[in-house]
What we know:
The structure is a single chain. By secondary structure, the chain is α+β, with helices and mostly antiparallel strands. It folds into two domains: 3-87, 2-Layer Sandwich (Phosphorylase Kinase, domain 1); 97-243, Aminoglycoside 3'-phosphotransferase, Chain: A, domain 2 (Alpha-Beta Complex). The chain has five helices and ten strands; from the N terminus they run E-E-E-H-E-H-E-E-H-E-E-E-E-H-H. The chain has helices spanning 47-62, 97-113, 145-158, 210-227, 237-243, and strands at 14-18, 27-33, 36-42, 83-87, 134-135, 138-139, 163-166, 175-177, 182-184, 191-194. The protein has a four-stranded antiparallel β-sheet with strand order 1-2-3-4, with no helix packed on it. The protein has a two-stranded antiparallel sheet with strand order 5-6. Strands 7-10 form a two-stranded antiparallel ribbon. The protein is globular, with a radius of gyration of 19 Å.
Amino acid sequence: MGWPALKQWGDDARRIEPLTGGVGVNEVWSVRVNGRLAVGRLGRRSDADLAWETDLLRHLDRGGMAVPVPIPTTDGRSFADGLVVMTYVEGGPPETEADWQRVGETLRQLHRLTRDWPQRPGWRSSTDLLHAETGTRVDLGAMPPEGVVRCRAAWARVAGGARCVVHGDPNPRNIRMTADRVALIDWDESHVDVADLDLALPHNAVGLDEEAYDLAAQARAAWEAAVCWDPTGVDPFGANRLAEVRARD
């Protein structure tokens, strides 16, 4: 396990410099493989988890989406010893309302392409957490009981929505735009869930009515509160997101 695994992409494969993505979860570096600029991501996810993610990215690429595409090792594997090497995706973040509308169209495309996709190994959806206590990085038992009630109420309001792969973190840092395409990067939080978790975008970019937008925003805030909850209180992000989740009307 570790960066020596990069040699499995060729004797000339090398790291260049660290990138900002994946802080706290992975080590992410720009790398050079077969003379091309690429991205290497080293983490501790299981082989089953990495297989799910790399299969998803190839499926989306075949479906016409712009995503980082896994580059195989010299013997054809999608990853090795926790390391995934992917194509480098250029572009800048969305800035205008029109940009965000293009992002919204891209997320809708993701959802259409993955309606029958299996759940990421070991993950639970917001719908599952209406009854389950734990899943992946979520431990509802560590949250205040009243906060859990609010989160579950927010998830219950969207539980009847279409299930598909959600990107899980469509913030500007994870979007790379050019004049002719919108790319989504950093698929660490992707899993199967209700599409609403991706749809509370700036400028209401997917054109939800007022009630639907509010429900999606509440469900998203509840999800981020649960995933990022820090029982020590050192990181306030989860608590801040929980404060945005209203009690059941």
